[in-house]
Amino acid sequence: MSRQELISPEGLRVDGRRANELRRISCRASVLNSADGSAYYEQGNTKVLVAVYGPREPRNRSLAQQDHATINVEFNIAPFSTSERRKRSKGDKRLLEISSFVKQTFEGAIQTAIYPRSQIDIYIHLLQHDGGTLETCINAATLALVDAGISMMDYVCACTAGFIDETPILDLNFVEESSIEVPNLTVAIMPRNGNIALLQMESKLHSSKLEDVMELAVEGCKHIHRKLDQAVLVAAKDLADKLSN
Amino acid sequence: MAETKVVLPGDIIDTSLDSDEEESSVLRLGPGVAQIDEQVSAVAAGVLHSDNEKKQWWVVSNKRRYVPAEGEPVVGVVVARHGEGYRVDIGSAQGALLPLLAFEGATKRNKPNLAVGTVVYARVAVANSVMDPEIECYNSHTGKSEGYGELAGGFMFKCSLGLARRLIDSKAPVLNALGSGIPFEVAVGLNGRVWINTEAPATTVLIANAIKNSEFLDAKQCRQMVKELLEKQ
Amino acid sequence: MVVEIEPSNIEREFLLEALEKGIRVDGRGIYDYRTLKITCSPTYGLVEVQLGQTRVLARVTCEVTRPFPDRPTEGLVQFNADLSNLAAPGLDSSSGKPSVQEVAVSRMIERVIRQSRAIDTEALCILAGEKVWSVRLDLHFLDHSGNLIDAASIASIAALRHFRRPDVTIDGEEAIIHDVNERNPVPLSIHHTPICVTFGFFGSNGDLMLVDPNLLEEQVQVSSFTITLNSHREICALSKAGGVPLAPSLIQRCTQIALTKVDDINDKIQEALMA
Amino acid sequence: MDVDMESQDTRDIASRIVTPGSVITNDTAFMRGHGTFAERTTIYSSVAGAVERINKLVSVRPLKQRYSGEIGDIIVGRITEVASKRWRVDVNSRQDGILLLSSINLPGGIQRRKSESDELQMRTFFAEGDLVFAEVQSYFADGALSLHTRSLQYGKLRNGTFVTVFPQLVPRSRSHFHTLPCGVDIVLGVNGYIWVSKHVPASKVEENSELIYSDKNEFISDDERETIARIANCIHLLNRLYVKITDTSIIFAYEASLTHAVKDLLTREIAIDLAHNVKTRLEQQS
């Protein structure tokens, strides 16, 4: 397999970005009217749609917790999301892993103690897949939860980063993510205090380089936080205008 | 006492007493022994015990799952609170019921308020195969708590039923050896749970480990082990 | 369904109180591992690891199959982690879907071994495009008393290094697989040995830290973090999901601590393989 | 009573739109209300919405949030489960509400005592899927609403159709049961559940209280059905365009809609035009 040139000598990546450039992000809240909260989120060519229902009566009451809400996350990938059509089975471990990561991340961010004996459902649907699946799911789910008016300690913003030819690179696309030499680190932070809600990394990276790659990813998260905040404010003002006149 | 005889489930036990009483006297069969078509045979693997005066036969086996028996002290954890009492886990098949009034000086108005997860030292009040077991935190005859009730602070750990039974009798070598070295409070539940409390966490951990290690040591080895632990501390 | 019983309040409070003084319930120091016992059995690729009371059995087997069309010269590596309720009362596998823990552990091991290319898959090629070795690693958890991931990662690496596959000679289109007693079997070519080190965090903002949490500590911890390193000081995987958010400085400190831990675990594996 | 020492900080607090995690104030004089949380002395917002300040209390009202009941709210609910001596009712809130057997009117007038047999034939009163018109009487310990239907206007709903709207669009008012001039009864639940039904003269209900739990719809003529459908579509379009839903706004919408066929009311252009028409008439009126 010829070693594909991931960074050109001039420092440009396969999709023309610089090493520390995020893909173009465009996102909108309140896109579905039957859900309590919803969001459409695009980062580069990765597109995801999230619907949030709740807090509502749990379907099976034996799981209801006395003192806090339980969070249920279902993540599925549309068969048409990648170039070759592939229907993933219900028990696919990779899907279950991503939904359990999203569930655990938001168990720390949502103030579940305010909604005892109820359930919050987060349904995530990946429409197009071009790398950074976990990152886009977390950002989209944050937007949908805020849109649903659910109390949260803070936004949760996620971003990926990698390392090619001795330079940390920000926000990996599918080609960079799937090439085996490139370590793929996903970090999700709570922007207010910069603490790490989630940190996942695959393939190899020398321990001395970890700090630089993480710093770059955290920078990316802060930028995404501003984007999410704008989307929320736009949706909020739009709703406020409609309701007021 | 007959010399220690190990029996396995299904072994027939000849109950012919060495004393001269006639055959048909009533026998009382304890845990681990049952009558299967007129023959008395063991249903549990363990050491056979018999008591001639009370004509009692029972088998002591080192199982871990506790079967509640009336009058036995147990250490339980409150799992849920219902209207008229608490559901307490004592390691038995079903959770035990601890009525709200089963505390010293508890009346309709001032009922004890235990949170879920509290540890209690209690006495098994009702235990039969039909109903869920019931426990009480006072001696129902005298109305006094006699040490039963909520266990605050300290640490609790699980051990086998055999070890718990040996710890409960006052001559337990490991407890006496430890007692001479360090002042500590202990509550032993026959359901294989032991509660320890001292001032410093370090000593509590030391005592807990000492007790756990003492399971397969005889009295002399116990004293030796405890001496070493105390010096090392 | 058997519900895993939560630790009582006093166990929780005692554990935290002791941890503040740097003492753990089983007497270990906060950075100490439990006693690690690795037993390699006479049959190649079968290793059992005991970390304290947590016991894991790892079994490696191989067979000849066709390679994937897009990677004709690469052998296959497959994983299966079976976390049935043999190991702990609380695990409920009756619902068909694998339990959350089973998904977490098997995905972690897959990431550690496959994504970090611990096994040289090119060396598994017999006839390009036609026949390659497919190596399969099965993990069976016999007893769950905390920190399954570290025990599983040690068992996996030890089993892979202990495994021998039959020798093969190729003439032209034909490939002859020699019987084990005809020619002694060949070990797999393993680039590096990734080892997982798991940390538990306690206290309201997770500033109390310890290594290798046992079952009680795992139930009381507010957050956990696993870092995988090899002997060349390279990070092969990181995993922190959920729980209380942690300060970035804590992550760096864990990396330094883990580096020392990985070396002594590697020595222990080396000893076990020599015996 | 406005706080006299109106410092600059407090003036710009009110009516600002904040998002989760943003600082509202670190002035320790303030107390924190809904939608906020505090770390050390700083008050942060936990939801996206408008900040509200009442004297010392700062809270954030999210623009979109599920209905959370207040005592005295008049609501419409759907029975989800029949349990011992109570019904669980979906009230579009965080948890199902509870309707106790002891808080409903028993057929056969007020003086009838509750008996054992009532507990056995609960389904003759309300069964799963029935719609109930009730009032919130209190909260349970875990925040679930306790409902009651102990007045003649409350009880089982029939002879009509059901519409769901945003709860924020239904303002709290004295009465939520209206008979519109076009001869249709509507029930505006504060929880966003609305029932539009054929007009039944109040006198008929009191006559035979045996019938208050009957499941049979009365005969509804064709043009009554058309009016009910027209009113339902009017409510839909008001909801979609975020117009406050009151009896007056529905009447205005109904009158404006007469020139269109019922099914056209849901097309986008007509809906916008009608909603605009309603808004202008509402402004003229106030």
Task: Write a compact overview of the structure shown.
The complex is a heterotetramer of chains A (245), B (233), C (275) and D (286). Chain B contains 4 helices and 15 strands.
Write the layout of secondary structure elements.
The complex is a heterotetramer of chains A (245), B (233), C (275) and D (286).
Chain A: E1 25-29, E2 37-43, E3 46-56, E4 70-77, H1 93-109, E5 119-128, H2 133-147, E6 157-164, E7 167-170, H3 174-178, E8 184-190, E9 195-202, E10 205-206, H4 210-244
Parallel strand pairs in A: 4-5
Antiparallel strand pairs in A: 1-2, 2-3, 3-5, 6-7, 6-8, 8-9
Helix pairs in contact in A: 1-2, 2-4
Chain B: E1 5-7, E2 28-29, E3 33-36, E4 39-42, E5 46-51, E6 56-60, E7 73-81, E8 85-89, E9 96-99, E10 119-126, E11 134-136, E12 149-150, E13 155-158, H1 161-168, H2 173-181, E14 185-189, E15 193-197, H3 201-213, H4 219-232
Parallel strand pairs in B: 2-6
Antiparallel strand pairs in B: 1-5, 3-4, 5-6, 7-8, 7-10, 8-9, 10-11, 10-12, 13-15, 14-15
Helix pairs in contact in B: 2-4
Chain C: H1 9-20, E1 36-40, E2 46-51, E3 54-65, E4 76-82, H2 100-115, E5 125-127, E6 131-143, H3 148-162, E7 164-165, E8 168-171, E9 174-177, E10 186-187, E11 195-202, E12 208-211, H4 215-220, E13 223-229, E14 234-246, H5 248-274
Parallel strand pairs in C: 4-6
Antiparallel strand pairs in C: 1-2, 2-3, 3-6, 5-6, 7-10, 8-9, 11-12, 11-13, 13-14
Helix pairs in contact in C: 2-3, 3-5
Subcellular location (chain C): Cytoplasm; Nucleus, Nucleolus
Family (chain C): Belongs to the RNase PH family.
Main location (chain C): cytoplasm
What features would you describe in this structure?
The complex is a heterotetramer of chains A (245), B (233), C (275) and D (286). By secondary structure, chain A is an alpha+beta fold. Chain A has one domain (3-244): GHMP Kinase, N-terminal domain (Ribosomal Protein S5, domain 2, 2-Layer Sandwich), CATH 3.30.230. Chain A has 4 helices and 10 strands; from the N terminus they run ββββαβαββαβββα. The longest helix of chain A has 35 residues, at 210-244. Chain B is an alpha+beta fold and 233 residues long. Chain B is built from 4 helices and 15 strands. Chain B has helices at 161-168, 173-181, 201-213, 219-232, and strands at residues 5-7, 28-29, 33-36, 39-42, 46-51, 56-60, 73-81, 85-89, 96-99, 119-126, 134-136, 149-150, 155-158, 185-189, 193-197. In chain B, α2 (173-181) runs parallel beside α4. The longest helix of chain B is centred in the last third of the chain and has 14 residues, at 219-232. Chain C has a single domain (9-274), classed as 2-Layer Sandwich (Ribosomal Protein S5, domain 2). Helices cover 28% and strands 33% of the residues of chain C. In chain C, strands 1, 2, 3, 4, 5 and 6 form a 6-stranded mixed beta sheet that branches. Chain C has a 4-stranded antiparallel beta sheet with strand order 12-11-13-14, sandwiched between helices. Chain C has a two-stranded antiparallel ribbon with strand order 7-10. In chain C, α3 runs parallel beside α5. With 286 residues, chain D is α+β, with helices and mostly antiparallel strands. Chain D folds into 3 domains: 5-62, RNA polymerase II/Efflux pump adaptor protein, barrel-sandwich hybrid domain (OB fold (Dihydrolipoamide Acetyltransferase, E2P), Beta Barrel); 74-213, Nucleic acid-binding proteins (OB fold (Dihydrolipoamide Acetyltransferase, E2P)), CATH 2.40.50; 222-285, no CATH class. Chain D has 7 helices and 17 strands. In chain D, strands 8-9-10-12-11 form a 5-stranded mixed barrel. A 4-stranded mixed beta sheet of chain D has the order 1-6-7-3, with no helix packed on it. Chain D starts with 7 loop residues before the first helix and ends with a helix. Chains in contact: A-C, A-D, B-C. Chain A binds chain C through residues 90-91, 93-94, 96-97, 100-101, 103-105, 107-108, 180, 183, 185, 189-190, 193-208, 210-211, 214, 218, and chain C through 96-98, 100, 103-104, 106-107, 111, 115-117, 225, 229-230, 233-248, 251-252, 255, 259. Chain A: It is found in: Cytoplasm; Nucleus, Nucleolus. Chain A: InterPro entries: ExoRNase_PH_dom1, ExoRNase_PH_dom2, ExoRNase_PH_dom2_sf, PNPase/RNase_PH_dom_sf, Ribosomal_Su5_D2-typ_SF, RNase_PH. Chain A: This is Ribosomal RNA-processing protein 41.
